[in-house]
Structures are given as structure tokens and as C-alpha cells.
Amino acid sequence: MEIGESTKRRRIFVALPISKGLEEEVSRWREKYANLPVRWLENGNLHITLVPPWYEADAPSVISKLAGIKGASLGVLFRGVSYGPDPRRPRLIWAEGGAPREMLDLRIKIYETLGKVPEKRPFLTHLTLARFKEEDFFSFPVRHIEDIVSWKERFSSFVLMESHLKRSGAEYEVLAEFPL
Length: 180
Known about the structure:
This protein has helices at residues 20-30, 59-66, 101-114, and strands spanning 10-17, 39-40, 47-56, 74-84, 92-97, 126-131, 146-155, 157-164, 171-179. It has 180 residues and is α+β, with helices and mostly antiparallel strands.
């Protein structure tokens, strides 16, 4: 270990990574909106966030704690793609899906294991596909998206990811993967 490595604060979060199959479905859907002036998330960066980012100096300790979590594999059905989170003042394009009981239980286990307090706002299963500045929305050539999709995904693991913030947008790196 290098000097100072253990005190480096990393921006990390817990997520469910999507499969190559779902990435391909998203890519096909994205083609019809390729003219939108948005920052599309790269396929390797698509995920469902279970615990939002925080700054951490001891990522190995977090990995050790998460390794003890056991859960059940879970499935999600994404039913629609739209602007969000507030359709009147959007800043994302996202796919929304239901939150199965297994996912909610897993989230609680993760929060408890890490000694974190869950967010007060209700959990909404979503997959962020693109980001943009709210003020740019009014110049978009397409101002209404409410596409019905039927994207099915099965998760058998969750991951600890690091978010690398860049001018071009965040890039994500998987630090560790944990089977359910």
C-alpha cells in the first residue's frame, strides 16, 4: 500500500449492474432519439443505484462488510422510458420499473450493514439513460417521451462502484462484485 492510499476519499455507491442483453435493448431504443442534445450514458455505465454515492476513505472496509450480505436473485421489469424525474422540469431520460420485495430487502440490508441511514424519499427503481441540463430541455426537438417498453432483467449480484467525475460526465468503475 502506498503512503496516503488508505486516506484517499473515493466517491462510491452500491448498484445493480445490467446485462449485455439489456444494454443492447437500450442501444436499439436510443437510436430513435440519437438527435437529442443529451449526454447518453455509455453501456458499461448503466446500472440501478441501490445506495447513492458517498465519499469514503476506506473502500476495502466497505468491500469487507458488503461481502457478508446474502440475498436472493431478483428480477425487474422496466415498463416505460420518459423524461424525469419531474416531467415539467426534467434533467434525465430514464427507464422506470417496479421494485420487487427482494430488491427493497437487499437495500435495507446494505444500509444496515454499512451503518447508513436510508434516504427519506421513496425508492424508485430506474435506469438513467441520459443526462442534460434542465435549462436546455426547452430547445429539444422532442419534448415528450413516454415510450412503453418491456425490458426484463435478472440480477444475481450487486456491485460496489466508484464514480469518476469528469467534464464529459461520470464514468463508473466496479470495485467489487457480490453474489446474491
